[in-house]
Structure formats: C-alpha cells, structure tokens
Amino acid sequence: MAHIVEVSDADDPRVDDFRDLSRADRRPDRPGGRGLVIAEGVVVVERLLASPYPVRALFGVRRRIDELADALVDLDAPAYVTDADVMAQVVGFHLNRGVLAVADRAPAVDPADLIGRSRNLAVLEGVGDHENLGALFRNAAALGVDGVLLGAGCSDPLYRRSVRVSMGHVLRVPFTSLETWPDGVKLLQDNGFRVAALTPRSDSIPLRAAGLEHGRVAVLLGSEGPGLTDEAIAAADLAVRIPMSGDVDSLNVATAGAIAFHAMNGG
C-alpha cells in the first residue's frame, strides 16, 4: 500500500519533484530537465500506476488520493496529502484535477522489437505540437494501432501536456524513435510492412482504394503545417490521401491519423 504522508509546508523538500511546474526552466519533464513522467488527474494517474513506468510518488488533496485507494494497494511509494492552497504553492498554479503522480522513465523500446511484434504502426515526422502528439496517441490506443515510431522533428510524447491530452494512453501505447530518417523507413519494409505516406497530393491514392486493412501496414503522418517532407514520401511504398470536399485541403494531423487508423483496421 502507498505510504500516506501529510504535507502542510509548501517548502517541504519531499515534494520537490512536483515543484514550480509553471516555470519552464524548472519543469522536470522539459528537455534538459530530470525527465520525469508527470500524470495529472485521477484517470491519468491510474493509467500511470498500471503502466511500466516506475512511480516515485503521488501528491494531491485528500479526496483525490482517497479516490485512488484501490489503485494504490500494490504501490510501494509515498502519497503526499495536502490541501489545495499548499498544492498550488508547490506546483505553481491551481490544479483543478487535485492530484499528480511522478514516475521515472521506462527503458527505451528497441525499434526492431516493436516492429517485429506489430501488425500496424503509426510513423510520425515533425509532429512538434504536444497536444496533437497526445491526441495521436489517444487515437492510436482507441483504434488498435500497435505502436508509434518517431521520426525526425517530433516532440517528446512524455511531455506533461502530451500525457494529459492523451488521457494517459501515451503510457500504454509502445513507442520509440527511429535513429535515422527517412532511412529508418526501410526497417519497416525489410520486416514486411507496406508503408503508406498520408499526403493531400492530388496524384496520391484515395484512402478507400489503398487497401490499408490488408497485411502489415505503417502510416506516415507529417507535421501540422507542411506535412511530410518529399524525402519521407519518396521512402514510402505509396502515397495516400483522404478525399475532402469544398475548399478544405487538409486536416489536423490527429484527425487525419484517426481516419487512417480506422481504415487500417477495416473501418
């Protein structure tokens, strides 16, 4: 069972992992920081507790810690209980969700291992917006994607905002980085994957005609603005577009991803 510890002093060093999250230079989940995984809210904290990430501690108001009682039975870590005012002083802002948890990172997944055990994958290039990244992971979890491969220019999926927007699903969808880009696409092809680059180009194949539901398939998705680079599209086996009406020429990358993921699973 988690060790319940009362905290009444905002300067208590035991809650330093949760301190000053509103200041970019102090956030432990920022690049160059301590690299901790931070979960916010009861639902996301529960998913962190059920994930492979080693939980260091929880910090929250009594009501939220009590809501997590069943999930804390097997946890050997402190759960710091405080009031909303002290919590706001520590965190740096008022947290409506009332509870946080921090964890160390799990060991990185080997790309070859993830590819070897998957049937369908999402491959991202230049997805730098943390909210879009989190939404992509939530869509991947909901629509049966086995994992996510990160190409050049992607943000950290374990950034606090990405974890929150994904509703914690980034903690359960396996992901890893491809060390070379776009040459890393060949690793997929060497393992029997057909790689489809999602692009609005008029000469690309309409989604319904692409047959993404057959065999092992990886869908390439590009950045929110320019989309996939010419090099990434050239490395793919085929270019696929989502037909659109009117003057709309593109979709938000998370929305486009959801449509493609649904197609990969026979939707």
Automatic annotation (TrEMBL):
BP GO annotations: methylation
Pfam families: SpoU_methylase
Family matches, as CDD domains: SpoU-like_rRNA-MTase (cd18095)
Every tRNA/rRNA methyltransferase SpoU type domain range: 122-261
Keyword match Phosphoprotein: no
Keywords: Methyltransferase, Transferase
Keyword Cytoplasm tagged: no
GO molecular function: methyltransferase activity
Protein name: TrmH family RNA methyltransferase
Annotated organism of origin: Saccharopolyspora rosea
Native organism taxonomy: Bacteria, Bacillati, Actinomycetota, Actinomycetes, Pseudonocardiales
